[in-house]
Each structure stands twice: as structure tokens, then as C-alpha cells.
Amino acid sequence: MKTAGLSPRMLAFRVGVSGKTVERxxxxxxxxxxxxxREDASNALGVEAEMLWPKAxxxxxxxxGGQEVVESYAFRSACPSGIWADLISDASDELFFGGYTSYFxxxxxxxxxxxxxxxAEGGCRVRFLxxxxxxxxxxxxxxxxxxxxxxxxxxxxxxxxxxxxxxVDGLEARFSAPTDAMNHVSLSVxxxxxxxxxxxxxxxxxxxxSPLMRLRRRSDQGVFSxxxxxxxxLWERATPVPEG
Length: 244
Hints:
Strand 5 (187-192) and strand 6 (195-200) form a beta hairpin. The protein has helices at 8-15, 19-27, 35-45, 49-52, 54-62, 81-90, 104-108, 112-121, 136-145, 151-164, 181-185, 223-237, and strands at residues 69-73, 94-98, 125-130, 171-175, 187-192, 195-200, 212-216, 239-240. The chain is α+β, with helices and mostly antiparallel strands. Helix 1 crosses helix 2 and helix 1 crosses helix 3. The mean pLDDT is 85. The chain starts with 7 loop residues before the first helix and ends with a strand.
């Protein structure tokens, strides 16, 4: 670490630490101060903290957050359907479809019903978390979108398609709880083992016009795991879709 003309004593005074602490920062390049001290020191010296302690950036990236975003798209519709198909095909343990309607999967993924059945029968857990077609949030969203293919129609289409699969061990559909519906409708998460496609829904945009991120797990404390935990929380409070 270089003090850019400031004496260790003066830097220590500005940061609010002891002179010996600053001397250790200078002597040991492997030593990374706490984030608050890094920020105060960089402000005092007028340089970016990353220039003083580049290892801190590497450590943060190693934690997974910076490297877990594999790709991003300004629109969900810009993500090639082949990526969706490949992720579904490659998954062996976990398929989680957390879109509020997930309607588009049946129209864009070739042989989607057959793939779901094969995955579930092969031991893969397949889950659909859907919005309640009769819920208040669904009605509110329909007014906001104001499109002919309504939210409830899209949900009911998915329900019909799931019902056509019949009883398949490992395949389950639930409605998100009323208290979670607003959180659900504003964020779609689709998980494929250790990868995910995430769409944060913009205020008035339909799903295909909202942005999408592709994530890949690199750490148990990374971005991927945060979204998975969100899905699991909503799933635990969700109610099974009534049969028939």
C-alpha cells in the first residue's frame, strides 16, 4: 500500500486508526483492512480502494457474486429458446419453474411436456410455482398489463398442460400464498440444478419485455443461492394446486 504523500501518522489520523495499524497496512500487502477502513483510507488519499487493495476485489469475486452472472439480456425474449431447452435437458436433480404464469414455456420449448415427464420419471424434482388465477394480485396485474391474453388465462393454460401430464411422481404445482403474490409477480426465477434464469419484472412490462439474467452457482453465499432461498421460502408457504 502506498500513502500518496501522506505520512502514516497523518493517514492514521484521517482514518481514525492507530499509526501502527497503518504501518502494518504498508508493510504487509496480504493484509486487507475492514471495508470501512478501506473506504476511509481511499477517501483520504483520493484514490479508489481497489487500487490500494486489489486483493480485496479478488476475494470478493472468489465469493461468487461477481462471477455468477454468466449472461444478461435486456429482454427475456432475447434469450434464445435453445438456452432454455439446453438447461432443462441438462438438469438431473432440480427443475423449478417460478414464473407467475410460466405460459411461454409450453409454446417455446420443443417437446416440453415429454421432457418434463421424462425428467420426473428419471428422479428429477420438477416444481411449478404459479400465481393464483383468481387472486387479487392477478386481477391487479391484468389491469396494469391490459393485454388480450390475460394473466389468469396464461396461468390456466399452464394448469391445463400440467394436468394433461397426469399423476407423475416428482412433479408438483403450487399457488404462491396471497401474502407472497406481489413478491412472486415481480420476480420470476427458473432453476436448472446449479444454473438459473432470473427475470425481475419491470413496473408495467409483460414478462417477455423484462430483463433476464443467467446465473451459475459458484458459492453457497452467492447471488444464485440468494435467489434459490427466495424460491424455497415462497414454495414452503405455497398451497398445492387443487386436483381436477
